[in-house]
Amino acid sequence: MTVEFLRPKDLAEACQALAAGGAEARVVAGGTALSIMIRHGLTRPGRLVSLDDVAGLRHISQAEDGLRIGAMVRLRDVELHPGIRRAYPALALACGEVGNVRVRNQATLGGNLAEADYAADPPPALLALNASVRTTSPDGGRTIPLGQFFRGVLSTDLRPSEILVEIVVPPPAGLRSTFLKFRSRSSEDRPCLAVAAVAGFDGDRCTDLRVAIGAACETPLRLPAAEGMAEGRRLTAELIDEVAIAYADGIEPIDDLRGSTWYRREVTRVFVARTLKELTPGHW
Amino acid sequence: MLDALDRVRGSVPYPSQLRLPGMLAAAVRRSPIPHGRILRIDTSDAERMPGVVAVLSGLDRDRPGSPVWLYGVALKDQPLVAAERVRYVGEPVALVAAESASAAAAAAEAIQLEVEEDPAVYDPVEAARPGAPVLHEGRPDNCFVHGKLRHGDVEAGFKRADFVLEETFTSPVAQHASLEPHSAVAQWDGGRLTVWTGSQAPYIVRRVLAEIFHLEPEQVRVVVPPLGGGYGGKGHVRIEPMVAALAAKTGGRPVKLVLSRAEEFATVTKHAAVITIKTGVKADGDLTARQITLHWGGGAYADASPGLVRAGIVRSVGPYRIPAVQVDSFGVYTNLPPAAAYRGAMSSQTTWAYESHTDSIARRLGIDPLEYRRRGLLRPGDRFATGETMHDIHFLECLEASAESLGWASARAPEIGPLRRGRGLAVMMKSTLATSRSSCRLELDEDGRLTLYTSSVEMGQGAHTALAQLASEFVGVPLPRVRVAGPDTQVTPFDSTTSASRSTGMMGEAIRKAASSLRDKLIEAAAPLLEVPPEELEWAPGAVRPAAAPDLCLSYAEILRRHGLRAIEASGTHETDGGIDPETGQGVASPHWHQGAGACEVEVDTETGKVRVVRYAAAAYAGRVVNPILARLQNEGNVVFGLGPALLEEVVFDHGQPVNPNLSDYMLPSFLDVPAELVTRLLEAEGAEIHGIGEMTLPPVAPAIANAVFDAVGVRIRDLPITAEKVLRAWKEKARHA
Known about the structure:
Radius of gyration of chain B: 27 Å
Oligomer: heterodimer
Strand content of chain B: 25-35%
Strand content of chain A: 15-25%
Structural class of chain B: alpha+beta
C-alpha cells in the first residue's frame, strides 16, 4: 500500500487536494496522533495532506476583539505565550498538560481539536472560554462555536474537504480562568478527567460561571443549568459543592481503563469543586 | 559499563538491527479468536503476491521431511504455527517471507483463514474447575503441572493456633515491555542452521531447534548480539522455531522477524496468579502452620511454566520460621498468550501475597510491622520448609537497612486536607536455579590482551562489564585490555541461561577457575625461562616472578613471546546440583538465597484514591559487589520497574481480545512517578560469595506500597494493580461500615 504525501502551499490548494482525495484523504497537522493511529491500523489514509507549508496558520494575535490562534500553532507555543498565560490561564495550562514536552513541540492546537479525542486537554479549556473555530473549504469558510464542533469520539462538525484554520477566543473581559487535569494512572497518562472553569466576579459575587469537563464523556461538555446556580451568588464551599454535585449527577460518563462510570462521577464531583475553589477570589 | 557510549548514542548492534545480504522480511498471520478449530487455510493467493518468497503454515506439517511440529522446553505442546486449533488471540497461524516487510505484511493479510470458534476460558481458577473448556487433549483439567511441598503437620498446626487468617491475593497478566521487541534472523546452509536472536538462553534455543529439525546440536549455531532488555521475556524459546521453519523454505536466504509492540503482547506475558494463603498464628505472634494454594495462568502453552511453577513453590512460603508448611502450586492452561518468567520470576506474585498477608497478621496482633517481622524472620542456621539449613542469611539486615533508610520511626508529616500519609515495608526470599552450569574460556594473547569467551547474555544489565572486571581481576590484566566475546554457540562454551540473577555469581566462579588454571599454565611456562621450579614462582598482576627474587619478573606477553606462542588458553566450569522432591518439596532448592527488602511512604488522596509513592528505600544482599554503579542501578531500576505492576500495569482482555496492547493504553510508570526520594543499599559480607542482584528489590515494591496504603487509610487491597479506583472504592466501603 502506498500513501501519497502532499505539501500544498496555500489553503485553496490544500482544500482541493482534500476534495480530490475523497474519503482516502486526511489532513496532517503535527501528526502526533495521526501517526499513532496509522501505526495501529486504526486509519489507513491513501493521501496525506500536510499543512506544514501552508502560510498564515502560525499566528497568535491578541487584540481588543479577542485572541486568534492559527491552527498550526504548536501546543508548546500556546503554553508559553505570555499574553495567553496572563489573559487565558486555563488555555495555557491545558496546552501545557498535553503528553510531554516532545509531543507539545510537535502537536498543534488545530490538530488537537480536529482529532476530537475525548481524552484531550485543550478542548474543555476552549469550551469554557466560549471559543470558536474558523474553517475554510471549497464552499467558503464558516465559524463554528466550539459547543457545536464536537460530535462524538473522533468526530467533529468538519466536512470532508473543510480545514480548521483558526481558533478564536473572545476577550478575557476580566474573567478568571483555570484548568485542572486528573490522571488516575501514570504522570504522563492522558486525563481521566479534565476540568476548565471561567468565572467573572462583581466584588465577591459571581457574575458569570462556565465549567467545562473533558475526558469524562464522549465529548467535552458544559451544563448550563449547573453553571447558572452560581449567578449573582458568592462561591461559598456549600455552593461549590452544589455545583460539583450537579455536574457529577448531570453527566453520563464513559467507562475505560482510566476509570469506570462510577469512578468518573466521583472524581468529577471532586475536581469541579477543586477547580472552583481555585477560581474563588481570595483563594490564594 | 563497557558499552556505555554505544548505549547513550543508540548504536548498540541489537539483533533487531541486524542486516544480512539477501535477507528477507517475515510477517505473521495470527489467530483472530481465542479458541477454535481451523477449518481451512489457503495460502495460494499470498504465495502469488509480489515479492513473496515463502509461506509457512499448518499445511507444511505433514509434508515429507517436515520438522517436528510440536515443541516446548518442558512439554511438547506448542505448534510451530497452529495447524488444527488456535488457542489464543494472536497465536501464529502462518508466516510469510518476502523481499520487504510491507510485501510480507500484505501477503500475510491475504492468507485465507476459516476458523470455528469454541468456548474459551481465561481465569486460571475457572480453567481448573470441572467442566471448563479443555485446551489440550489428555489434560482434561487444563492442569499441566501440580507442584507440592509437604513439611510438618499443617492441620495440627492450625488447631494449635490462637487464630487462623486466610486471604486470597491476585496478580494480573502483565507485560515485560522490553525496549527492544523480540527479533530473530534464521539462515539455512544445507543441513546447518544459524540463528541470530535476542535470547537470554542461547543453549536452550540450540537444543530445542536441534530437536525440532532432526539435527545434532552442533549443526545449530545460535548467535546472540546485545539485547535491548529481557526481564525473562526472552528466556527459553520464543519466536526462533517458527522463523527457522520459515527460513527452511527460502532456498538458503536469511529471514528476519521483528515483532511489533502489539505482537509483543501476544507473544509472552507475566503469569496471572491467584494465591490463597492461610496461616495459623499464636497470640504471641509465632506461626504454627501455613497453607498456600497457587493457580498460575500459563496461557495456551506450557512453555517454561512447568519448571517455573515448581520454582514458585519455595518462592511462595516467605522468609519466616513456620514449623508446618503445605504448598500446592498449579500451572493451568488458559486461552491467553503463553506466560513466562517475569523479572523476579514468580516472586513478584508470591511476595505480593505473603508480605501483604504478613502485614495483615501484624495488624491483627497490633504489633508494628517491622517489629513483627523482626521476631519471625529466618536466621542463619534455621531450617526452611524444604528441610535445608539456611546459610548466608541476611533478611533482617535487608529489612532493617530499608526501614532505617526510610526513617521508619521518624515523625510523620501532618495531614493536609484529604491527603493521608502511610508507611509500609516488605521483604522477599527467592531461590536461584538449583541445578545449573556455566563454562567459559579465557584466551591470553602475545600482546597481553585477554579475551573472555562466554555465553552469558548482555541485555543492558551490564553482565559483560561485570564479567570482564572479574576476568581482569582474576587474571591480572587491566580492564581496557579485556575483551568479551559471545554468546555464539559455535565459539563460546555452555551456559545454562542468563536469568535468575545467576550470571555474575555462576559465570564469575567459572572465570575464577579458568583464571586460576591460566595462571598455573603461565607459571609452568615461565619456569624454564626463569630457570626456577614452578613451585618457587608466584603470580603478580600481569606477570610471573620468583618468590625469592621478585625483580626477575616476566610479563605475560614476554612469556608467550619467548615460547613463540600466539596465545594461551584455559577453561573453567562451575556447576550446582540441587533440587527438591516433586512430591514433598524436600531437598536443596537453591545454592544460595536472593534477599531483598523495601520500605516506603505513600500519600493517598482520599477523595480520588490516588496513591503517590513519596519516598522509597530498598536494600538487597549482594554478598560481594563487583561493580558498585551498575549494582546500584539494578537496585534502583528494580524499584522503578516495580512501581508498574504495583500501581498501573495490567494487560486487559475482553473475551480473550487484548484491549490495551500498546504503550499508550498499557501503562508503564513515567519518570515523573519515581519517588522524589529513592535510596537503595547493597549489603556485603566479609568473604561472601557473589549473590545475584538483578531482581531483589522488585518483588517487595507492591506489598510495601499496599502495606503503606493500609497504614495511611486502613484499607487492604488484595488485587494488583493498586489502582486509584480500587483504593477509593475500598475507602468508601470502609466509611459506610464505620
